[in-house]
Amino acid sequence: MHKNRFTRIGFILAAAGSAVGLGNIWKFPYIAGENGGGVFVLVYLATVFFIGMSIFIAEVLIGSNSNKDAVTAFETLAPKEKKYWKYGGFSFLTGLLILTFYSVVIGWIFHYIVLSISSLPANFKESEEVFSNFVKNDILNQFIYYTLTFIIIAYTISKGVKKGIEKLNNILMPSLIGILIFLLIYSIQLDGFYKAVEFMFYPNFAKFNTNSIIVAVGHAFFTLSIGMATILTYSASLDKNVNIVKASTYIVIMDTLIALVAGLIIFSITFTAAQEPSKGAGLVFITLPAIFYEMGTIGIFLALLFFIALAFAAITSAVSILEPTVMYLVERKNISRKKATYSIAFFAYLVGIFVLLSNTGAYSQTLTFGSKNLFDWFDFISSAILMPIGGILIAIFVGYILDKEVSKKAIVPYTGENFYKIWLFTIKYVAPISIIAIMLKEIGII
Ligand code: PHE
Ligand code: NA
Fold it and tell me: Candidates 219, 310, 317, 383: which one to mutate for ligand 1, based on the most atoms within 8 Å of Cβ?
């Protein structure tokens, strides 16, 4: 285990790689669009930096202090009579659920990388058809891309923390950042840039409603990868004497900046083509490709870069989702890393096939239960229920169960008493109360 640790920068890139994903480039722009922009972005920023970052720090604290898989981490740090806290570690199972639909979407991205160079849809109507045709009818190609996704993920994890995860992130993350900077510079000189800035940063209170708050808080969890032992597990491969507040701040800032930059890029392009940003989940897969087509040759180039960036962001996240389960099996069950990786990946892969099929015309009826198909259920259950519960568990554990000396020692020397007090207050009261309120609201109880 000890040879297999992240370097400090390796950890920051890998954790940022986990955080920066579909949530930033695909989801954030379209939910910001649906919720009217400015005010939503404000609420999002507030929740990410207040609640999200506090829990993020708490997860890093548990991981880096125990240097153990999630289950053992809780077990080691819990006081003697409260060892049942180890079950909190099983929040990593949420990840397996996410991994299924997340990988299906990565498959779509691969398809769009190919479309960028072969045949972008010529207008919006065609673009809509291309997308829905692919998702609903093209089972074979979806299946091939989906399989490829799992091979990449499993191969990376099987290589371990240093040779697999760190290496992958060392390549993909700088490339991703480079591409985004390029696309941002390109966007700045588009006519729609100013409107994009206005849309994202000018708060239009008329569009404000409580539902936007729910969406923003739910997304704060998803975007920071918290509440399912992912960040905890990565931190377990980090040395104890690292300034965890500083490292967490870098990661949260990187995640936020990339979401904002992705939004600026996408909205600049959208507004320049005189399109509406409120097209929902189709913004990236339907609206953008048609605009890229209209741009001609440069559009093909931009489309290619954009979908490659999206793929890089998503793959580093998917990899991070698998690691907690694998690390648990390796450390607790003495299974070799290769065996653990391939068996768990194969299991998730099989379940994911049903998730993929639940979107298709042929099987959607069979795989729809009540109001949602399997794809939407998995998304809903993980983001709206399981991740928030995982977040509350972390908050309660660190706020009430964990010896205060442990958290003080990891934070106060770097930040001073005042920061620690604010952080602890957030962890003990603000985070759990607001998360519970939001969950109740989401389920429809309040
Ligand atoms: N944070 C990732 C994103 O924004 C998603 C993710 C969730 C990754 C949970 C790991 C764990 O896309
Ligand atoms: Na994110």
Answer: 317
